[in-house]
TrEMBL record:
Signal peptide: none
GO cellular component, one term: cytosol
Entries under Pfam families matching the protein: Tti2
Cited InterPro entries: ARM-type_fold (IPR016024), Tti2 (IPR018870)
Xref: SUPFAM superfamilies: ARM repeat
Top-level lineage group: Eukaryota
Family: Belongs to the TTI2 family.
Name this protein carries in UniProt: ARM repeat superfamily protein
Positions in coiled-coil regions: none
């Protein structure tokens, strides 16, 4: 019996959409003009094929695809979902839009479909590089790392999964379409690829792993994380992400890793428990302060990313964050002080002021000892803004002024004595200059 004509059309189009391995990050340094021309021609062709595929699946006779033929569903998903990736070398805004429109047909896939995608297109690829800390048959953490102390080195060799371009995007699609009640059925299929990516030595893959972990934490049951020991394994992997400073993706990695760590801690621990407090303190004290700020001080974008992720962590720790004020306040005040060289990092200043405001809100009982340090930094920053000694946009200037007023206003409420003493001294020094700051 011959295949259905539509099936033949589908098969030929999916074959044309297979992404060349040259688009894998490990191959993108190839500057051969002929190779670049071929890849550009392929990208143009994919637009035409995706247009035709969109028309094909919207034909009345083909609506059966979303409900009946699982094999065709799985094949189409495994190919087209990869084009939903944002800013990938193999996509364009048009191909991404087409892929998103096509995948709307599968906006609510059954767990059977997701399972088949995992079994057919994801598990075989990652199975060749088993994670040394995982039982890949159950998705549980191993009590002892398989392969001994050199297992991690072996793990980084022969990484064939990296040549399967767009595979992390497909893993992401699966994770986003698994319901909370179905995770236990596919746990052993989902966790190995996630852990492989987040524990990789290359920052882009670590970043993809962190993004998928964040998606996982939106629906995964708490008891499944804890029962399998994966909560601790993921938390350790996220902590390892905080020491990577030298890649262009490092700021994004650090920002998302801090946020994902916080989400994981809040999910896997109980409110008011010592375990939650200890893990939150480790994230702030060992992760942010003891790793990023200690070793990444020459990377302003990395520092800014960590500071942007700080307010949610402070809100959860509340006054418990006060034990770290000796590190927090100087770090956040430092960007406010004028630099004798070059222009200021306004985005870093704004992030620092936002974090300072959060600390003032939640650590108010311990702020009195730091009132002069905070006011000194705010006043110096204000002088440079008002005297226009920095070449910055007017909109940025206004943003800074608003935040500086906010910090000083909060400081006045927390430490009323500052109004009669320190504020008064500044007003007497230059009423016209400081009046608007110290209203």
């Amino acid at each position: 019996m011959l295949p259905h004509p539509t099936s033949l059309q589908l098969s030929s189009k999916l074959q044309a959409l297979k992404i060349p391995t040259q688009h894998a990050p490990n191959h993108q340094n190839d500057t051969d003009p002929s190779a670049t021309a071929c890849l550009n021609a392929w990208k143009e062709e994919t637009t035409r094929v995706l247009e035709e595929l969109k028309d094909l699946i919207h034909q009345t006779e083909f609506t059966r695809l979303a409900n009946t033929d699982m094999a065709e569903q799985v094949e189409l998903i495994s190919v087209v979902a990869r084009f939903e990736e944002e800013n990938a070398s193999w996509t364009t805004p048009r191909t991404k839009a087409l892929a998103v429109e096509i995948m709307q047909v599968f906006s609510e896939p059954t767990i059977a479909v997701v399972t088949e995608v995992l079994i057919r297109h994801i598990k075989p690829v990652f199975q060749r590089n088993p994670h040394p800390s995982l039982n890949i048959s159950t998705g549980r953490k191993l009590h002892r790392q398989a392969g001994g102390i050199m297992a991690s080195q072996d793990f980084y060799e022969n990484q064939d999964w990296k040549d399967n371009v767009g595979l992390p995007t497909l893993v992401s699609w699966c994770v986003r379409h698994i319901k909370e009640t179905d995770y236990s059925r596919v746990w052993h299929l989902v966790i190995p690829p996630i852990m492989t990516m987040i524990d990789d030595y290359q920052v882009p893959y670590k970043l993809r792993g962190v993004v998928i972990v964040s998606q996982l934490l939106e629906r995964v049951p708490q008891d499944l994380l804890k029962r399998t020991g994966i909560d601790g394994l993921i938390l350790k992997a996220l902590n390892n992400c905080l020491g990577h400073f030298d890649h262009e993706c490092s700021p994004s990695l650090i920002r998302l890793a801090i946020n994902a760590s916080l989400s994981l801690i809040m999910l896997a621990t109980t409110s008011g428990s010592s375990a939650r407090f200890d893990q939150l303190c480790a994230l702030l004290g060992d992760g942010v302060i003891g790793t990023i700020w200690l070793y990444g001080d020459r990377k302003p974008d990395v520092i800014r990313a960590s500071i942007e992720a700080l307010p949610p962590l402070i809100r959860v720790l509340k006054v418990g964050a006060a034990r770290y004020l000796k590190a927090l306040i100087p770090q956040l005040v430092h960007p406010l002080c004028p630099s004798p060289f070059g222009s200021p990092n306004v985005k870093l200043q704004i992030s620092s002021l936002d974090a300072l405001a959060t600390i003032l809100e939640f650590c108010s009982p311990r702020i009195n000892d730091w009132k002069c340090t905070i006011l000194d930094g705010a006043a110096r920053c204000w002088v440079f803004i008002m005297e226009k000694k920095w070449d910055i946009d007017e909109s940025e200037r206004e943003e800074l002024k608003i935040r500086l007023r906010t910090v000083c206003g909060m400081l006045a409420k927390i430490c009323p004595s500052v109004v009669q003493v320190e504020f008064e001294s500044l007003i007497q020094c230059d009423h016209a200059l400081f009046h608007d700051l110290l209203l």
